[in-house]
Amino acid sequence: MSDLSIPETMAAVLLTGHGGYDKLDYRTDVQTPSPGPGEVLIRVGAAGVNNTDINTRIGWYAKTVTEGTDAGGGAGFGAAGEDGGWSGSLSFPRIQGADCAGRIVAVGDGVDPARIGARVLARAMHRDRTTDRPMACATMGSEHDGAFAQYVVVHGEDALQVDCDWTDVELASLPCASSTAEGMLDRAGVGAERVLITGASGGVGSAAIQLAKRRGAEVIAVAGAAKVEAVVALGADRVVDRAADLVTAVGAEAVDVVLDLVAGPGFDDLLAVLRVGGRYVTSGAIAGPIVELDVRTLYLKDLTFHGSTFQPDHVFEHLVRYVEAGEIRPVVAGTYPLSEIVAAQEAFLAKDHVGKLVLVPPS
Fewest C-beta in 10 Å: which of 12, 110, 263, 304? Predict the structure, then answer.
């Protein structure tokens, strides 16, 4: 069952392969998808821009790539091969976009027609229903088409109704970044303790500050000097300039948990500021994925390392609840028409903003 106003074709950005901005093809004649059994069709109100969109476009996930995202953000990595996607090879063209806020306009067999008209957020990272492997993860815009379009199909269980006064743009700033942050906090079991957050002015980092504070944590944020005021406004108890010597600024063995989105050359210092028995959790490596680890530091300090990609269902469900309860607020740095996706990604890579950049498709 569907809304009769759904057009046969729609505007969308097709990713035609790994590479530079030329691989982003904005078109207005893309076939509008139809929901299958158990699925819903969402009219996209807004879609956020994330690191994973750029990483996928440039092929950064390929094991042959050893540099940070910025090194290939514009032109891509020529060495990227079949493993250049989030979970390996991708089929092209692909509609990217992990963030989606909008309304259900059609449902497939097995979905209650009463859901049509519901305002929803789509779960960005969700269980891969094509396999029974534990922690198998699928991502919107990677394993299946995403929200850089006027319409997107998702499984009905991954479209969560949300009742709040936020705009679609504000809601679209949440799914990928905020669920990644909440997933990291959940994975590391963060409570009322001292937490260090790297990349604190970005989408995940800015969300992590708020989400850690609602858990009672004391937050030390690492960010550029020009963004200190904005990061403090998000709730950080202290901000350390990313150019400073971290161990001198924070102190050796001074924090309980490190939430790291950066990795790269500063990795060793992050372990140095962790207390004995501390936890390190990561979901990104924008400064470079290859780090040097002295294994003695790991075992002599009894550290625990957590990788964080897969999210149990409760992570996104809790996020929606926080929104409805007014416990977190959106951090939107700017908006762009979907047709200006290249300008949005250029601004994203310039990193002059705090929070999220959001794309708005034609109405």
Answer: 110
